[in-house]
Amino acid sequence: MQRILNTPETVIEDMLDGFVKANGHLVKRVTCDSANSRGVIAAKDAPVPGKVGIVTGGGSGHKPAFIGYVGKNMCDAAAVGEIFSSPTALAFLEAFRAADGGAGVACLYGNYSGDNMNVKMAVKAAKREGIQVKTVIANDDVASAPKDQSEKRRGVAGEILMWKCAGAKAALGGNLDEVIQAADKAIRHTHSIGIGLTPCTLPGSAHPNFTIQEGTMEVGIGHHGEPGIEVCPLENAAGIARRMVGAVLPDEPFRKGDQVVVLLSGLGATPMLELYVLYNEIEKLLMGEGLLIHRSYVGNYFTSLDMMGATLTVMKTDEELRALIDLDAECAGFSQSSPT
Amino acid sequence: MQRILNTPETVIEDMLDGFVKANGHLVKRVTCDSANSRGVIAAKDAPVPGKVGIVTGGGSGHKPAFIGYVGKNMCDAAAVGEIFSSPTALAFLEAFRAADGGAGVACLYGNYSGDNMNVKMAVKAAKREGIQVKTVIANDDVASAPKDQSEKRRGVAGEILMWKCAGAKAALGGNLDEVIQAADKAIRHTHSIGIGLTPCTLPGSAHPNFTIQEGTMEVGIGHHGEPGIEVCPLENAAGIARRMVGAVLPDEPFRKGDQVVVLLSGLGATPMLELYVLYNEIEKLLMGEGLLIHRSYVGNYFTSLDMMGATLTVMKTDEELRALIDLDAECAGFSQSSPT
Hints:
2 copies of one chain form a homodimer.
Chain A: H1 11-22, E1 27-30, E2 40-43, E3 53-60, E4 71-72, E5 77-83, H2 89-99, E6 105-110, H3 113-128, E7 133-138, H4 158-171, H5 176-188, E8 190-196, E9 216-219, E10 230-233, H6 237-248, E11 259-266, H7 272-288, E12 292-299, E13 309-316, H8 319-326, E14 329-331, E15 334-336
Parallel strand pairs in A: 3-5, 3-6, 6-7, 11-12
Antiparallel strand pairs in A: 1-2, 2-5, 4-14, 8-9, 8-13, 9-10, 11-13, 14-15
Helix pairs in contact in A: 2-3, 4-5, 6-7
């Protein structure tokens, strides 16, 4: 494989060092108690006294998620796992400590068994230290289970909109319950689906960790290559857009006049040119359904190493969520000014 | 090839439509006189009366360049060419018209024969309309010709730092000569080199448009796959960093204590994780040489479709250039707040 690496064993350390060096105006490295916990990235000014801390975390390989969302008006700290593996409980605990300014911590993460287990342990340990942590688990991937089994659904790129809303709520002075409510409202109205065109390859592997045949695409693929709901012949951009929109819209269900936020993320190796071609088709379909697009984000926001493909995320907003989405933010993976 | 497209014939139109829809708060499409000119993207508020207009342009396939640098405190308009082809003279002329607020236009573009020819024609036509245009041609690619033949050197990712400095100068009220001087100073002190790990494939092609053998890398590769100066066995991140830094530093030459801006761009299909691993090694080498890193940018800033690899750009700064680099900016490909 054609990769830019030193050794597979050091890839996370090397990446974290490079990340902090490149973004030293926004973030800092938190030294951990244990060599077992790979590391924690915290906002430069964390913890902010009196502000609810926003924590996330997850496996590596999804850049800019998760550490790229640590910064101004977004997350205060992120726990870092190995490639496609949950951070340890200790890493989550360190992240809680780094983010807690005395007003409690909202831990907002994706629905994977390792993360669930480790967050639960860390929350208990934090309680013993007097840090109150409440959690919201993202489960926006509509392809990962039927709607009536949403507790089985995975969290994917919709997490970004959850962090955005909760981060803004905390920055605006919301208390822990208000921040948790904002995060919960955001993710409950957020629906995502991924389509994969190529597999991805773990650093140090000679071969991809699964297969997508040339000329086919996998609809509903997960962020780690979890099987989708259908493998079908590769379609053109309009066809891919129809499948994505067709999977996402019935899930809310979205209705004419709904004001939505749209996030279209490449999976790592998709050229931006193609993302814009795809967004053009998606926008036509959403407008055709009478939806009003409040904001849209097109880029590599939540990736799967070098996978080709994209995820579409659509969030239904109300006035509160729109105001939270619109607040300015600055972090390595996501920057915006307030609307002028 | 696994691509998200409708037809190769419509890829530029589809992409431009998607781009403007996704970034309607920042940019607008300029309708052109002629079907021959693919299009022009202008900042939403362009032209700004009394402000020098900043124009760039180039072939498509380099997203977010060129159109992703149109926005607040950066470029006012960009002319769009076909994939890897210069925009037409008419497109450049339309971009001048869209950017001219009565204080003249600085056209800042890369050193390619098609662009040189078309800009020259457009400048003449603009003069007949009473629009004064001055140009600076970027030639930051140190691998494309020896230093004493810098007029033969190609412009690559260093153009971004030129646009940043000139855009800031214009935003701060600089007149046309002052803006041109800032752009010229920026690019004269900017040095880049690319390393390619895979070739790229034009939309609609079944095969890559050149070859890089598995297990090798091409040092000094151009943004369109122009041959580099050496094909050698693929090295680890530390080795790649040594080659990049070794090529760039002697070219200024950079000296201990110099304050530099560093831009490390992926070429399209390089996972962010690997860019941070590479940046970590580059930073060590620059620090080892006694350079002071004023700011660094790591991301996909100037790409070559789906090529794997990266370009390193280092700019020597003085007080003026640092102030210009530090000004806030917001465009699709590049956003930053002013330092606080």
